[in-house]
């Protein structure tokens, strides 16, 4: 997560604290391992990293702007993943939680922390934050989640929701290319 200094410098103070806490939680989960896996966890399409060759066989330098084919620019992904992390939705990700359909997992972790089942995922999308936020608000409510807190600022937005014993916090951060970085932390 070598880009966190760049990411955090563009956020306002309250959102910077929230995103910093989310990143710390993701790294804490890297040290945890869970043997429990919930079946039917949501999935998202994997992304192929690297630039595509042109018609002449040359490899184009990937631009930061969203690409016409809907793929995510490789520079938006972490340079390397922490131990026990995958670029996938964790197996214990709650099945009642929505996963933004036009997104690609960049980082996923899960584990048991002090007897509490936790999962975290970073998703990348080329869609604007307002579109992503509207999707999550509608889908959380449609799936029986109660939104208990919502915050927004220049650096992004967060939604906290509960459903029975399960709690989720979802952060939406605008990406430089006009897309959205989505961080979702789940407990319970």
Element string (H = helix, E = strand) = HHEEHEEEE
Low-confidence stretches: 1-16, 26-68
Structural class: alpha+beta
| Widest sheet: strand ordering | 1-2-6-5-4-3
Question: What is the makeup of the main sheet?
Answer: 6 strands, antiparallel
| Helix-residue proportion | 10-25%
Q: Please report which band the strand proportion falls in: under 5%, 5-15%, 15-25%, 25-35%, 35-45% or over 45%.
A: 25-35%
Radius of gyration using CA atoms only: 16 Å
Distance between the termini: 26 Å
Strand tally is: 6
Number of helices: 3
Global geometry: globular
Overall average residue pLDDT: 73
Number of domains: 1
In short:
The chain is an alpha+beta fold and 188 residues long.
SSE arrangement:
Elements: H1 4-9, H2 13-30, E1 103-113, E2 116-125, H3 129-142, E3 146-153, E4 156-163, E5 166-174, E6 180-187
Antiparallel strand pairs: 1-2, 2-6, 3-4, 4-5, 5-6
Keywords:
6 strands; alpha+beta; globular; 188 residues
